[in-house]
Specification:
mainly alpha; Fic-like fold; Arc Repressor Mutant, subunit A; 2 domains; 3-stranded antiparallel beta sheet; two-stranded antiparallel ribbon; 4% strand; globular
């Protein structure tokens, strides 16, 4: 059987991005970040990844709707397929977590089960959950209908998937981040399933990072970067085929995306550490510390936000907390109008 051998060149851009990623990994391993903050941020990362990876494929949910659905609430105006795709991602992500705990080798069965969970019950199971395709499918421009890519014949899929999994399980000197990038592209290129290939490829990439020790405390979401500029994302994938299957351009795009996301995580973590130092320095109470942390994440806060953050505390006490933070010059009133009763607060430069 012909072995899978990806072709690429390590460019200066890739080396630069890998340096940023390694520094971020070191920061997250060494930084003193509270378990509560890590839990909150990892839950938010799961929300963002579930939302953006399904949004790329056409779901119409807003981020707030996705948040409500993952919290167990109903969103009557959302389509059943959109809801199912979002919740399916969480189920598939749980499978990845279980797989990592088991320490089992990566297999085609694991990839097929990821796919099964992602598309189960969506659009009448047209995606044939967990089954390799037995038709010649194609990727078309959703607006023009023009065929962009015709995947390998369906009869070649089992052998190609076997080669990919064997390559992923082989020991090599290739950086784990690049392995994850190659895995994502190659699965999309093989297009082994009728539907759900993009979501499966992105979750496979995440799995590859996690099992290599690059889980970054599960605080990153790569699909958010892709969803910001889907055209650039699709062009990076198609660029490999236009370059006679040279993966260099795709690897540059992938590492730039991960480096961008990780730098944002490091910046956020750095601000949280500074906020913790300030809380101790000024002897802030738990509510005041919570307000600082909230502002680090969401930039502005009003009294309603604070009430949701501390539901067991009356408004007068919360207003006193905000006044103390303002007196200490940790936050500032950013209300546009002096007559607006709904005051908005922002964090002063720390």
């Amino acid at each position: 059987m012909t072995q899978f051998q990806p072709q690429f060149t390590i460019t200066n851009a890739i080396t630069r991005d890998l340096t940023v990623i390694e520094r971020a990994r070191g920061f997250l391993q060494a930084a003193t970040l509270s378990d509560q903050w890590i839990t909150q941020m990892s839950q938010r990362a799961l929300l963002l990844e579930a939302h953006h990876t399904t949004h790329i494929e056409g779901t119409q949910l807003t981020l707030e709707q996705s948040k409500q659905l993952l919290a167990g609430n109903t969103v009557p105006e959302a389509s059943n397929d959109d809801v199912r795709e979002l919740l399916n991602y969480r189920d598939a992500f749980e499978l990845v977590s279980e797989y990592l705990l088991s320490g089992s080798p990566l297999t085609e069965s694991v990839i097929r089960e990821i796919h099964r969970r992602l598309v189960d019950g969506v659009r009448g199971n047209e995606g044939r959950p967990g089954e390799y395709r037995q038709i010649q499918n194609m990727v078309a421009n959703s607006q023009t209908g023009e065929v962009i890519y015709r995947p390998p014949p369906w009869g070649d899929v089992p052998a190609l998937m076997t080669q990919l999994v064997e390559w992923l399980n082989d020991e090599s000197d290739i950086h784990p981040v690049l392995v994850a990038a190659v895995a994502q592209f190659q699965l999309v290129h093989i297009h082994p399933f009728v539907d759900g290939n993009g979501r499966t490829s992105r979750l496979l990439s995440t799995l590859c990072l996690y099992r290599s020790g690059y889980d970054f405390k599960r605080l990153f979401t790569i699909s958010e970067f892709y969803d910001r500029d889907r055209r650039a994302f699709y062009d990076a994938i198609q660029g490999v085929r236009d370059a006679s299957m040279d993966l260099t351009g795709w690897l540059e795009f992938f590492t730039t995306g991960l480096a961008t996301q990780m730098q944002e995580t490091v910046d956020r973590g750095t601000r949280v550490i500074k906020a913790d130092v300030l809380a101790k320095q000024h002897k802030l109470n738990e509510r005041q510390s919570a307000a600082l942390t909230y502002l680090l994440e969401f930039e502005t806060m009003n009294i309603g936000d604070f009430e949701q953050l501390c539901p067991d505390t009356n408004r007068r006490s919360l207003q006193r907390d905000l006044k103390r933070l303002a007196d200490l010059e940790l936050i500032e009133d950013r209300t546009a109008s002096a007559t607006d009763p709904n005051r908005h607060y922002g964090l002063r430069e720390l």
